[in-house]
Design brief:
- By secondary structure, the protein is an alpha/beta fold.
- The protein has 21 helices and 14 strands.
- It has helices at about 5-15, 20, 40-45, 45-50, 95-105, 115-130, 140-150, 155-165, 165-175, 210-215, 225-235, 265-270, 295-305, 320-330, 340-350, 390-405, 435-450, 460-475, 480-495, 510-535, 540-565; strands spanning about 70-80, 105-115, 135-140, 185, 190, 195, 205-210, 280, 285-290, 335, 355-360, 370, 380-385, 500.
- The protein has a five-stranded mixed β-sheet. A three-stranded antiparallel β-sheet has the order 10-7-11.
- Helix 17 (about 435-450) packs across helix 19 and helix 20 packs antiparallel against helix 21 (about 540-565).
- The protein starts with a helix and ends with a helix.
- InterPro entries: Bact_solute-bd_prot1, SBP.
- It comes from Cohnella ginsengisoli.
- This is Extracellular solute-binding protein.
- Keywords: Signal.
Length: about 575
Amino acid sequence: MHTKKSTLLLCSTLVLGMTACSNGGGNNGGDGGKGAASASPSASSSASQQAAASGAGASEDASFGKYDETVTVSLGRQGVSGNNLPSGDTLESNQYLKYVEDRLNVKIKYDFSVEDLDAYNQKVTLAIASNNIPDIMVVDEQQFQRMAKAGMLADLTDIYDKYASPLIKEYYGSYTGDRVLNTGRIGGKLYALPNTNIDGNFQLLWMRKDWLEHLNLELPKTVDDLKSIIQAFVQKDPDGNGQADTVGLLGDTSIVTDGGFFTFDPIFNAYHSYPKSWFQDADGNVVYGSTTPETKQALGVLREMYAQGLIDKEFLTRKWEDNAGLVSSGRAGILFAPWFAGWAMSDAVKANPKADWVPLAVPLDDAGKRNIVPSVPSGSFLVVKKQAKNPEAAIKILNVEYEGIRLIDPASQELYKGLGVGWLNYPLNLQLDFQDSLARDVPIYDKVVQDKDKTGLPARILPRVESVLKNQENPKQDMAAYADSLAFYTAAAVTGAKELNKVEPAYYGKTETMLKRGANLDKLENETFLKIITGTSPLDEFDSFVSTWKSIGGNEVAKEIKEALQAK
């Protein structure tokens, strides 16, 4: 599986809850996938408590008020691939859907549901072109912008203020400067509710600590430390089997990818290089991170590492599964991957219980910082048709849905209990969470490990707490518990390391020229960088790349971004 494809697959199931990623999704962690944590103690004392007080449709406030007469809304959405609903239940008829409908007296009618993303996008495009869209859809950025420009969308500004629940508002409010909710605004008006991409999807350095100890090496901090350790891992038989069968740093041909496995983002970042991101300098000039002198310097370092055998010589031809196999077979002991790689590491431990994987926020730059580029704030958008009779119903459905997903309402805790049915079977497939959802749950685990007391914990976190406690009591004996603990507890704690320095891009969206020429620009960049790293082209080829890249569309993109920034 290609890195980007694997990352998207993981993240689509990870972000909302414990079981959705670890065992197919479900209603016992409330986060939807294997990723982000959910409401924290701070949220529980404010928004979550207010929401919980509503009960199953008992509240008469604006956020949860039940309609006196049945309201029908039409919905178009992407379906759930590989659904594990029990026999007889479907996306269009299941307990989650009935839970929402019963609480609000809302009847949800599916205009269409298509599992394949490309096929879904075709449905959406056709609906837009024919000006016949359902009341509610979740769409991508280009589709959102197109509908907004055509005047097809309801203005949700006042509706959001009045109807969004305290929890939903706290999710969006946790992102600095309204950086997420602003992506749904055009001309100061809110025309869409965006999804939220949590902090922490940057690459950590994962390495075999038992190999370090076998070779009497210290944990690394800098790129130079990293080079020395990789060299030892390649040359000094770190696994002690008497064979020269270990490989160096694993790599992927995508080179740099947000949330990617085996990519080289941290090496670039250590040299203040941020490929594929757009920034604005002090003079107002728009700069593409892939074209800076710092990027050339980082490519030179990677080129030297490859020439010295520190980077896996075969990374150009290896697929995602090949790299994963090197990890699980014990041939690879060092790689870059996000926090949720904890589950992948469990395969290596299953094969060799002595394997001890540790995640680190390194390499650091010359100031002792691990520079990171935050994930794009959002990528999908909940929109409501301008002619919808009850546009507020979309937000009320979202309110109720998240009481269910987060297991705040006691009644929701009984839905598909123990069956691991994924949260995506709720009607609105919009992922929401706190910006720091990973790090904010770590103190809970710390306290539980110390006190062995689970009293008063929110229901949505109990399964993960059980995993952490089980692994603490009998390390590595239960692989599911070990994997959950390694990801949600050990690695999640590292995502909040004090050394982190966020470098925020000035622009995340897509311009007209990006849409028209982006594929060619990306291809030129990727091919040039790979040739430089592997020694096929000289380092100075970078200068020719920059010149060509600018002339075939890069300068035009920069101009469009500058205009977009000035229009804000």
